[in-house]
Amino acid sequence: MAIFQLRLTISLKIPDNEARSALEAIRVKMGLDDEVRDLTREERWELGVDAVSFDDAKAVVEKLVATTNLFANPNKHRYTLARADVPFGGPDPSVGADLADDEVAILVSDRESAEGDSILSAIRRLGVTDVRSARKWVRWRVALTRTPSPEEPDLLPLIRRIGVATGRRDGLLSNPHSQVSRVVLPWGEEKPLES
Amino acid sequence: MTKSMPRIAVIRFPGMNCEEETKRAVVDAGLECDVFMWNGPTSELVEYDGYVLPGGFSYQDRVRAGSIAAKDEIVDCLFEEAERGKPVIGICNGAQILLEAGMVPGIERGRVQMGLATNIMPDRDGYYTRWTHLRVANDGTCATRAYERGDVVPIPVAHAEGRFVSAEKGLIETLFANDQVVLTYCGPEAGEAREFPANPNGSTKAIAGISNPEGNVVAMMPHPERAARLYQVPGNLAGPWGARKREARDAEAMFGPGPGLPVMSSLAGFFGAEPREV
Predict the structure, then answer these.
(1) Mean predicted confidence (pLDDT) in A114-124
(2) Cβ distance A58 to A6 under 8 Å?
(3) Cβ separation of B101 and A112 shorter than 8 Å?
(4) How far apart are CA A169 and CA A21, in angstroms?
(5) Among B89, B80, B77, which residue's Cα sits nearest to residue B26?
(6) How is domain B7-270 classified at the architecture level of CATH?
(7) Could you check whether the bond before residue B105 is cis, i.e. omega within 30 degrees of 0?
(8) What residues 187-206 of chain B have any CB closer than 8 A to a CB of chain A?
(9) A118-128: buried (b, 16+ CB within 10 Å) or exposed (e) per residue?
């Protein structure tokens, strides 16, 4: 037996009201309508599963996803399940692999992985003990109104204004006291967002 | 000439669901009160003497509880009125809004210095509701001046994101040193709430409510409007309030003040108003 790391990605196949509300808040309430064009969202679960092979580990998670509604509701969600190619906790090229030139990804997770612990408890209550770790990240995909460049000094401050709550007008997607966040730029560079 | 009663606005953001019972409790405490819509004119809002942000699910708790409402224009107005010394009480979702807006703890004005994180509970997850016991740690704020320091008060909580946390080193200690920790969870006999369920969400140092340094802005997770009258107290509750409920024999007793009403009476006391007989 060994621990296999899997990444479960879940997105809505119906309109995402949460992303629409967040976009409206950023563009209208925070006054960034000249900077942000669109916003979408998906959940990324990092799961560590004790199994004899990757296929067995995948089967455990497939069964949980397909039959329990713990991670997804098949009436409104779609999901993909893949082997995590890099260890959890470090830079992950898959986060930014599908970004367009004018998009950045902002990843947000609980500091103490309370949601991961909760779902682990729920899984154990079902008698399933093979899932050993779980952490949820939300990946916000932010489409800017222009194509940023690596030389732009104002880019990171702008992304922090979108991503990290520091005041009434600044920052929405994460609260730095309860959450951690990082950004992946279109050219693949990844940075923590908390200053 | 009769002095007019202070007027309180209970702010209703979309998705809130406790505004009417909060208004009722404010009126029971002897104040005039209106429910004020979040998109109402701020020129009318500034005419009120104080504000209560009630519980509920503003903007359906999208992104994070309270985070979107904190960006509404009306919160700028509330911030300015609080800076002028007017009282503002945030209850549950209202507390989440005040933290997300940086109105509390307010050591650095307007800066977000804390969060209300997802509950941590052994073998449970998500939304959690129960009657909790609270110890009044500061009886000088706009929400606690009708209590005495050390009072133990049963008031229910109902939330999924109620764990006071801060990533700022030393901030929690500063809050205690400044008397900005207003309410802490405790046992029925005032014993420390070290763990669940006495501390219902894993809150740091069992904090249930905090204030700004001046004490005119208070964010509290428990719902005092759900404990405003004795009939709302469960008969099986430990401590003197449970005993009082069990001994109540008539409507006069049942509709008498409950343990949460002094939060609103504190607001009345802030203006020197006398509580109305309930």
Answers:
(1) 90
(2) yes
(3) no
(4) 15
(5) B89
(6) 3-Layer(aba) Sandwich (3.40)
(7) yes
(8) none
(9) bbbebbeeeeb
CATH topology of domain A2-192: Mth169; Chain: A , (3.30.1280)
Give the residue ranges of DSSP H helices in chain A.
17-24, 54-68, 93-96, 114-125, 155-163
The CA distance from B183 to B194, in Å, is 15
Q: Would you call the peptide bond into B275 cis, given omega within 30 degrees of 0 as the criterion?
A: no
Q: What whole-number distance in Å separates Cα of residue B66 and Cα of residue B203? A: 17
Instruction: Label residue B277 by pLDDT band (50, 70, 90).
Output: very low
The pTM for the full model equals 0.95
DSSP string over B205-244: GGEEEEE-TTSSEEEESS-GGGGSBGGGS-TT-SSHHHHH
What is the residue whose two structure tokens read 């406790």?
B18
Q: What would the pLDDT profile of B32-62 be if each residue is shown by its tens digit?
A: 999 999 999 999 999 999 999 999 999 999 9
Q: What is the pLDDT of residues A24-50, one digit of tens each?
A: 999 999 999 999 999 999 999 999 999
What local confidence, expressed as pLDDT, does residue B188 receive? Answer: 87
What letter represents residue B7's amino acid? R
Q: Where are the domains positioned within chain B?
A: 7-270
**Chain segment A156-172, per-residue pLDDT in tens:** 999 999 999 999 999 99
Contact (Cβ atoms closer than 8 angstroms) between residue B221 and residue B155? no
Return the structure tokens found at A65: 């996803």
With a CB-CB cutoff of 8 Å, which residues 52-81 of chain B face chain A?
59-60, 62-64, 67-68, 70-73, 75-76, 79
Helices B19-28 & B261-270, crossing angle to 10 degrees? 60
B96 touches chain A (CB under 8 A): no
Pairwise CA distance, residues A170 & A179, whole Å? 16
Residue bearing tokens 């002028």: B84
